Amino acid sequence: MKTLTLLCAVLLLTACSEKRTEQTFYKVSASAETRHDARLDDKVDDPAIWVHPQEASKSLLFFSFKGKKGSGIEVCDIDGAQLQFVPAERVNNIDVRCGLLVNGEKVDFLAASHSEQAAVSLYKIDAKTRQLEPLALQLPVTVPTYGICLYHNRREGRFFVIVTSHEGACEQWEIKSDKARVFMEKARAIKIDSICEGCVADDEHERLYISEETKGIWRYNANPEAGQERVMIAKAGEHLAPDIEGLTVYDASKGEGYLIASSQGDSSYAVFERAGDNRHIGNFQIVPGVVEGTQCTDGIDVCSSPLGPKYPHGVFIAHDDQRRNNRGSNFKIVPWERIAEAMQLKMRP
């Protein structure tokens, strides 16, 4: 949709935050949603997208799940139909990367944080079976984890896990392996003043972004040798209404693209330039269409690769806290071209 409407966020009826900012929102609608569970204590949180190396239509969506049937990771096809459920204790956030060298084989993998536990788990993504397999479970870290993201230093072929926490203590760990096991070594401690969950690494630009929920988005050099130097690229109250939650990066190729952040307090998504000083471009909201819109979003993810005929330009996926309507939370799926057309953004060639 190309309609640009001025709204006062104080009129939005959300249970996310008491803070409101006046904001101009672009409007888009989702084309699909994942199945929800009407039981109120069933909750999904964070999505991750994996692109099949040979057949895009066989790509997978992963969702962290917490509810009556237990905590775990849902493995779904690109239409949101569940293919596998992997039990995982108190799983909270997830992320994926491709090409980790394990026993001479390059594998695609998923990392999961375990809420309030000082541990993360790694799973191999099997392209043939489209299933998750344990790679290394309950790897220890030294802070109670909350959020998680992965970083691949492409120049050196190194992979890292970054974990965030309620206390603001974040850590970066390098993933390593030998013939017997996959393990991690601590590479850096990152101190943030208060609660943070969302994070994302831009592998190409070697940048790490972390959301400090009530203050703003911090940008770091993603390489641990860079230490503690940081820049706040966006402050709460400017283009972001706390809590500031999920982060994701859209790769438009040749270093171009966008950093996207969940502005939970006004149920919008702030879009920033990926390169340079991360100039703010605008905010969009997902409004009712074929399916409902979103409110109170936690996790988000975006993919610029084609995912079959339904999603030739990739997708944006956002958590929707449907419990406001006495329904279980779920995810909304938006074809990227809808956002690109509304905001005059780039699409990957």
Word description of this protein:
This protein is mainly beta and 349 residues long. It has one domain: TolB, C-terminal domain (Neuraminidase, 6 Propeller), CATH 2.120.10.30. The protein contains 1 helix and 26 strands. It has one helix at residues 336-343; strands at 4-8, 22-29, 32-33, 43-50, 60-66, 72-76, 82-87, 91-102, 105-114, 119-126, 131-140, 148-153, 158-163, 169-177, 182-191, 196-202, 207-212, 216-221, 230-235, 244-253, 256-263, 268-273, 280-287, 300-303, 315-320, 330-335. Strands 1-2-23-22-21-20 form a 6-stranded mixed beta sheet, with helices on one face. A 4-stranded antiparallel beta sheet has the order 3-26-25-24. Strand 21 and strand 22 form a beta hairpin. It is globular, with a radius of gyration of 19 Å. It starts with a strand and ends in a 6-residue tail after the last helix. 48% of the residues are buried.
Beta fraction of the residues?
A: over 45%
**Structural domain tally:** 1
Number of strands: 26
User: Can you give the helix content as a percent range?
Assistant: under 10%
* Radius of gyration over C-alpha positions, nearest whole angstrom: 19 Å
**Structural class determined from secondary elements:** mainly beta
What strand line-up does the widest sheet have?
A: 1-2-23-22-21-20
CATH architecture: 6 Propeller
pLDDT averaged residue by residue? 91
Distance between the termini: 21 Å
Order of helices and strands: EEEEEEEEEEEEEEEEEEEEEEEEEEH
Task: Compose a concise summary of this entry.
The protein is mainly beta and 349 residues long. It has a single domain (4-343), classed as TolB, C-terminal domain (Neuraminidase, 6 Propeller). 2% of the residues lie in helices and 53% in strands.
